[in-house]
Each structure stands twice: as C-alpha cells, then as structure tokens.
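USER: Note each token:
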Amino acid sequence: MENLNNNVVKRYNPENISKPVGNYSHVTKISRHAETYVFSGQIGIDENDNIPANFNEQVTNTMSNIVKILSSQNLTPDHVVKINIWATEEIDWDHFYGIWNKVFGPTPPSMTIAYITGLGLPELKIELDVWAAG
C-alpha cells in the first residue's frame, strides 16, 4: 500500500517482511526536495486550555491538535512521516484507531508506541511526537 496523496511522502509495507501489527506503515520515504517539519509533542488539551481527566478524550483532543498544527504549516496528515506515541495508560485501541484511521486513512505513517510512567505535566496521559515533510 502506498500513499499517493502527495509526491513528497510515500508510505508502504514491503512484502518481504511481516505485516505491521497495527495501523502503521513500515517504511516512509521523503522526497529529497522536501522540507522537514518537527513539531513539539501534541497533547490532549482542548481549545479552552483544559486537559480532560479521561484518557480517550485526551486522545481525541491530541489528534485534533495534530491536524490543526499541520494545517498551520499548510500541511495535511498525508505529509506526516512518523509519529511516536507516549502513553501513561494502556491505550484503548478501538477508540484510538477509530480516530487514527479517519485522520490518516488507509496508508498511515510510521509509528512507535511506548508506555511510560509520566509526561511533562501530571495530568497528561498521552503525547504524540509528530514529524512531517512537505
């Protein structure tokens, strides 16, 4: 599967290795003429600067914030190269992938997930580190 929505970022899964165990691409290739964007970790804060206590609400807000920060640079989710996910609680993958799939579609970016004991603020339960090219 290859991301064909732009000519800067290509995503695919080689057939000579096992399929991804989640909704991500094993390989993301960036055109040599692209600019690289590195964003600060996006968190589950809402538009009123509130951080909900509920993990899934933080997930929803975080994904919305990713779309907004990409848009601020005239980028779309198709430009995302890699996302590192840092979570302090077990992820509800049904909820997470429901939003992830709407944002990234059938060719999601490369992904790494880590469970950790804490993030920058005690109320944070998830943070996504986003890299893009455009």
